[in-house]
Design brief:
The complex is a heterodimer of chains A (284) and B (220). Chain A contains 9 helices and 4 strands, in the order H-H-E-H-E-H-E-H-E-H-H-H-H. With 284 residues, chain A is α+β, with helices and mostly antiparallel strands. The two termini of chain A are 25 Å apart. Chain B has 6 helices and 10 strands. Classes of the chains: A alpha+beta (284), B alpha/beta (220). At the A-B interface, helix 1 and helix 7 of A face helix 2 and helix 3 of B.
Chain lengths: 284, 220
């Protein structure tokens, strides 16, 4: 039976090549656009995660002893990835480096003016606003703490940005999925109508609806599969071009591509859309 | 196997093709359905494989009551019937081999059996050199033999043959009737519709039914 279905699918594709290609290109466009948003989303998440790792929580203490005591206590907590002690001397050096040619501004300031501090990094899973706020409050209660600085506003902005992007991605995903299903279903419907006479003969010979529709399902799945494969290839070309032509020249941001799991997921998703389209097309 | 109970069939209110038809055909019967063209032989067949429904009456075929048969069960009725269509009904994009094998494919037979059965029938019907040809390139007689091979391939319990020898020469007509007799000897019902009464002499034990003015009369 399978060989018959595959042969039939091959006949269908070969005898309807023009419309097949038209349909394939349209789905590739829809899936490619969706893929582009996924790619941007993945890169956005990666950037936010890196940024999170770079910006620590900073706690200023009155004395170095108090800071060292607090370090020992904080290190024991399992939410912490690292705690660095920064002496006033180190702080001054950092400041000088940061100011570069404007060191003159630091005249009259010596390391005694600056406070010793701790730079605390959290494990990735604890980088959420609730934990940050609670943790900052508990730090404030430690002996000798002068001030706790944590990236609350920036963090909130990133979280909001990511949530907005997720909603946007979801809506675009839904819209383009519906568009893909609609394109495939219309294409399959027209093809099914074209083969009406042949299908009537198969019904007279005792073919079940499943048997008759199977080549159309395979056709839809193939359309989705090839279109998603093409989209992935186009996206890869785009990422490659972006990193060579744009990123190196003007930006310091490199676009990372989908990993194997994401690529396979995208191709399976495209194939499922193709199947759904052909299912609806033959049901009309 | 086949039972018509007070069956009426009309395509227009004024003209009944079949009128109060009652008949029973038992397993293993070979039936000639004779009558001139346009008398309703094809309609009789269409009622059996339920392409048409009667206006009145009930039809029972292979355990199915066609009046109440749901669409989802229709394929299973048709899988029990082999049909030699007068207008062939071949699939033009498939070749001869694929057309003959289609019925077996639908029933899900293994590839090896399909190959064996298709080759066996194509040999008997002189089609072995045409197996790879598209049906569009065949002569009318060749097309008719392909349809016969397709109908016989799955050894159906019921065979409906609508003018199966109308385009065949005498020698090939005999081959076809022999094949039908062979199937019939295995217990299948064969209904052979023809306008050629002489053919009935080739199967002496056959039951002969004549369709005339919407009614069937048994002949000796």
């Amino acid at each position: 039976m399978l060989s018959f279905w595959l042969k039939k699918t091959w006949h269908n594709i070969r005898n309807n090549l023009g419309p097949q290609l038209g349909c394939l290109l349209t789905i590739t466009l829809a899936l490619g656009t969706f893929g582009m948003f996924i790619l941007l989303g993945i890169n956005f998440v990666q950037e936010v995660k890196q940024w999170q790792r770079k910006i620590p929580i900073i706690v200023f203490f009155n004395t170095a002893e108090q800071a060292q005591l607090a370090k020992e206590k904080i290190e024991k907590r399992n939410q912490i990835s690292h705690v660095n002690y920064v002496s006033p001397k180190q702080s001054l050096l950092r400041l000088k480096k940061w100011l570069k040619d404007k060191e003159i501004l630091l005249e009259g300031i010596d390391d005694n003016t600056l406070l010793p501090s701790l730079e605390i990094g959290l494990k990735t899973e604890f980088y959420n606003l609730n934990f940050l706020t609670t943790f900052a409050h508990s730090l404030k209660k430690m002996p000798g703490v002068v001030e706790v600085v944590y990236p609350s506003q920036l963090f909130l902005l990133a979280v909001k940005g990511w949530k907005f992007f997720q909603i946007l991605l979801f809506l675009i995903g839904i819209f383009l999925s519906i568009a893909t299903i609609f394109i495939v279903s219309n294409f399959v419907y027209l093809h099914f109508q074209k083969k009406k006479e042949e299908i009537a003969i198969m019904r007279l010979l005792g073919a079940t609806e499943g048997f008759i529709r199977m080549p159309f399902f395979i056709e839809g799945i193939l359309q989705g599969f090839i279109a998603s494969l093409l989209s992935v290839f186009i996206l890869w070309l785009f990422a490659h071009w972006f990193n060579r032509q744009i990123a190196e020249a003007s930006l310091h941001f490199k676009l990372s591509f989908l990993n194997l799991k994401q690529t396979l997921g995208f191709i399976v998703f495209g194939s499922i859309l193709g199947y759904l389209g052909s299912f609806l097309g033959t049901k009309k | 196997m086949i039972q018509f109970i007070h069956v009426y069939k009309a395509y227009s209110p004024a003209h009944y093709v079949l009128q109060d038809l009652c008949l029973q055909i038992d397993p293993g019967e070979f039936v000639f359905l004779i009558g001139p063209s346009g008398v309703g032989k094809t309609t009789f067949f269409k009622l059996i494989y339920r392409e048409e429904l009667p206006n009145k009456g009930e039809i029972l075929v292979a355990g199915f009551n066609l009046k109440v048969l749901p669409a989802s069960k229709l394929p299973y009725l048709r899988q029990k019937i082999g049909i030699v269509f007068q207008d062939f009904k071949l699939l033009p994009e498939l070749n001869v081999y694929e057309n003959i094998a289609l019925g077996l494919q639908i029933l899900g037979y293994p590839v090896a059996y399909i190959k064996q059965k298709t080759c066996e029938l194509s040999e008997k019907l002189d089609l072995e050199r045409k197996l790879n040809s598209k049906v569009g390139t065949l002569s009318t007689g060749e097309k008719q033999r392909v349809v016969i091979a397709r109908a016989l391939a799955h050894q159906p319990p019921i065979l409906l043959a609508d003018e199966p020898t109308s385009n065949l020469d005498a020698r090939r007509s005999l081959v076809v009737i022999d094949l039908f007799r062979e199937l019939n000897s295995q217990g299948s019902v064969v209904i052979f519709a023809t306008h050629n009464r002489d053919l009935t002499n080739l199967v002496p034990k056959a039951r002969i039914m004549e369709l005339r003015e919407g009614a069937i009369q048994e002949r000796k």
